[in-house]
Amino acid sequence: MTEMSRSVIFEAFDAFPQACAVVDADLRILQTNPALCSLAGRSAKALTGLGFNTLLADRLDIGLVRSSLSTGSPLSGLSCLISRSDGAPAPVTLDVRLLPSSPDCRLLVVTPRASPASPTQEAHGLSGTYRLDLAHRQARVSPALEHFLTGRARDGRISVEAWLKAIHATDRARIKDRLRAVSGHRLDVHAFECRMRRHDGAWRQMRHQFRVLTHGRRGQPLAFSGIVHDATRTAATGPETDPRLRLACQAADLCAWSYDFEADEGHSTGRLHTGQEGPFCYSDWRSRVHPDDRSRVSAAFLALQFGATMEERYRIRDETGSEQTHVCYAEPCDSAGQAYGFTRLAESASAEAVASTPEINTVDQAAARSMRVASITAWTRDMTSDRMTISGPLCERLDLDQVDGSFSFSKWKDCVHPDDWPRLVDLCRSNFETAPNGEINYRIRDKNQQYIHVRARGGVSEQTPDGQVLTLAGVLSETDEVEHLREQLAVTERARAEAAAAANITAWFHEIATGRLTLEGPLCPAIELAEAFSDGGTRLVLDAEDWRSAIHEDDLHGLLSGLGRLAPDHQEDFEVRIRTRDGDYRWINLRGGVSQVGPDGAPTRLSGFITDITERRVLEKDLALEKARLDSIYQQTPALLHTMDKHGNTLMVNRHWVARLGYREDEVIGRPGLIVVHPDDRERVARTLLPQTLEKGELVREPVRLVTSQGEVLETRISAFAEYDLSGTPRAAHAVFEDLTDIQAARKELEARAEELERTNRELNRFATVASHDLQEPLRKIAAFSGLLRRRYQDRLDEDGLSSLDFLVDAAGRMRTLIDDLLGYSRASSRPLKTSRIELESVVEALLKELGVLIEETGAIIEIDALPAVYGDTTLLRLLFQNLITNAIKYRGQDAPYIRIGSVRAGDSWRIHVMDNGIGIEGKFFNKIFDPFQRLHARGDYEGTGIGLAICQQAAERHGGRIWVDSAPGRGSSFYFTLPTGTAEDVPD
Question: Is this structure's pTM higher than 0.85?
Answer without folding.
Answer: no
